[in-house]
Design goal:
This protein is α/β, with parallel strands linked by helices. Helix content is 39%, strand content 17%. Hexanoyl-coenzyme A (HXC) is lined by residues 99-100, 102, 132-136, 143, 146, 169, 171-173, 176, 197, 199-200.
Length: 515
């Protein structure tokens, strides 16, 4: 009879073999690519000694194409629980050294089991994706596995934060689960995401393209907007995730953890950031740094649709979501991509009890055939929907321009803003003074002897009449016209008095946003 000690030694041996994943040669290949192994990634991301693994002994049940003879340790995925900065998380990591991290039914079931656990325990789920997609030899079993993951991503959406890391080539189904999650992290030179890879493109379309050009980290951080955070290296990526986790709650019934408030540290004077000339650009992130605790701001989707800035900071020690037009890029206009970017972020903040501070300075929606044909009506409507739907505290500060549809869309009083502040430099009008004068005074300008002089005069008249915050304030659409230096203290006060805000909506199964 074997003793307990012998059984323990046998267990350790079994575990050690499985923990080697695809074996030394496959691991060496992984290391040569500058990557950590799946297990190393988990250990680097979680608090020291906090990881507990489950389902290590699960085996695949493929019986075709020689699979019956293949041993796939852990079926190519590691699952478990741990903590990040003391907060519990559920986690899985696909192991590319085992059949390319490809997803068979048992592999998928390990993932869905830990997802179910996360949803029950109400803690974030983190997925480290590194996979060639559906395991081709398993056929429909693999497709079923993906479907079961997507279903859970959707059910968990808005209940627990879902975070995806792309740490290798992710093809086919391997990219749709990340696309359904809240935050996608990519790493330079390592991350690749595509539906069909270069081989398929070559076969079907006869075109040659590298994996990097097709769906590398930069492509998704700058062009597609599929990635929310771009990191230079895996350690940089893990540091960013820790920062994010520190700023968001573990589930939708909690608020993010409050920490000791800090005064801003930025050296710039808030009154000198925004130029008086409404056509002069500036970096709105400096305004955010003037009002956020410690001048700290975690920007999201920094490289994509940069005409709008979104991200988390803290005010009075509590997490706040900032949405701000960026006059430095395209004058801060709203367009298809910036509307998509902001709308999704607003919905995240609303789902997870994070108040939203909106900073407004933009000339409206971007005109032009390209935007119209790209569906700016549908995309732009997402902003209207997201702000109107949100019931968390919503506060707006108009810094300078608030023209046309943009005035309404950027969390106006009319979409349910709780507090509306405007700097004295605010211009609230249907459109810019030049455009407005050219339309409403067209006849006078055409008939004038000196058309330019008349145009200038009418522009001035329009500016005096409408391009200021006082008309809107006289109608109660703006609550206070404030000095820039009062912004932080008024926002802190507004957030303090909104802390117990309660707002109900009519009973419905769900709305139908303009997806
Ligand atoms: C089974 C796979 C696999 C897959 C990779 N492998 N992808 N096995 N099913 N989908 C295996 C390879 O056979 C190889 O096994 C090992 O993983 C490493 O793969 P390599 O090709 O050597 O690695 P690399 O050169 O780095 O290329 C990685 C890759 C490439 C770009 C991901 O493997 C690839 O193009 N794979 C197929 C991608 C794809 O088209 N997937 C879509 C599946 S359909 P050995 O034994 O040689 O080490 C899908 C539909 C779901 O996902 C739709 C849901 C909506």
């Amino acid at each position: 009879m074997t003793s307990l000690r012998q059984n323990i030694l046998a267990l350790r041996k079994k575990k050690a073999i499985i923990e080697m994943g695809g074996g030394e040669a496959a691991i060496e290949k992984q290391v040569a690519m500058g990557k950590l192994t799946a297990r190393e990634c988990i250990l680097a991301l979680l608090d020291k000694d906090s990881f507990h693994e489950y389902d290590l002994f699960v085996e695949h049940d493929g019986r075709d194409f020689g699979m019956e003879k293949k041993v796939l340790p852990g079926d190519g995925v590691i699952t478990g629980t741990g903590t990040i900065l003391g907060a519990p998380v559920c986690i899985y990591a696909q192991d590319f050294t085992v059949a390319g991290g490809s997803l068979g039914l048992k592999h998928a079931r390990k993932i869905t089991k830990i997802m179910d656990h996360a949803l029950k325990m109400k803690c974030p789920i983190i997925g480290i994706n590194d996979s060639g997609g559906a395991r081709i030899q398993e056929g429909v079993g693999a497709l079923a596995g993906y479907g079961e993951i997507f279903y859970r991503n959707t059910i968990a959406s808005g209940v627990i934060p879902q975070i995806s890391l792309i740490l290798g080539p992710c093809a086919g189904g391997a990219v749709y689960s990340p696309a359904l999650t809240d935050f996608v992290f990519v790493v330079e030179n390592i991350s690749k995401m595509f539906i069909t890879g270069p081989n398929v493109i070559k076969t079907v379309l006869g075109e040659d393209i590298s994996m990097e050009d097709l769906g590398g980290a930069r492509v998704h951080a700058e062009i597609t907007g599929n990635a929310h955070f771009y990191a230079q290296s895996e350690p940089d990526c893990f540091a960013q995730i820790k920062k994010l986790i520190s700023l968001i709650p573990g589930n939708n019934s909690q608020r993010a953890k409050k920490i000791t408030p800090k005064e801003p540290t930025i050296k710039k004077n808030i009154e000198q950031i925004v130029p008086a000339d409404p056509k002069q650009p500036y970096d709105v992130r400096d305004v955010i740094r003037c009002i956020a605790d410690g001048s700290e701001f975690l920007e999201i989707q920094e490289l994509w649709a940069a005409n709008i800035v979104i991200g988390f900071g803290r005010m009075g020690g509590e997490t706040v979501g900032f949405v701000a037009n960026q006059p430095m890029v395209l004058a801060g206009v709203l367009d298809c991509d910036s509307s998509d970017k902001a709308a999704r972020f607003i919905r995240f903040c609303d789902a997870f009890n994070i108040p939203i501070v909106t900073l407004e300075d933009m000339p409206g929606y971007l005109p032009g055939v390209d935007q119209e044909h790209a569906g700016v009506i549908r995309h732009g409507a997402k902003m209207l929907y997201a702000y109107s739907e949100a019931t968390v505290p919503k506060i707006t500060v108009i810094l300078r321009k608030a023209y046309g549809g943009g005035y309404i869309a950027m969390n106006s009083r009319h979409l349910g803003a709780d507090f509306m502040f405007a700097w004295p430099s605010a211009e609230i009008a249907v459109m810019g003074p030049e455009g407005a004068a050219n339309i409403i005074f067209r006849k006078e300008i055409m008939e004038a002897e000196d058309q330019d002089a008349m145009r200038q005069e009418k522009v001035k008249e329009y500016i005096e009449k409408f391009a200021n915050p006082y008309v809107a304030a006289s109608k109660g659409f703006i609550d206070s016209v404030i000095e820039p230096k009062e912004t932080r203290s008024l926002l802190l006060h507004a957030l303090q008095v909104s802390a117990l805000k309660g707002e109900s909506r009519p009973q419905k199964k769900h709305g139908i946003p303009p997806f």
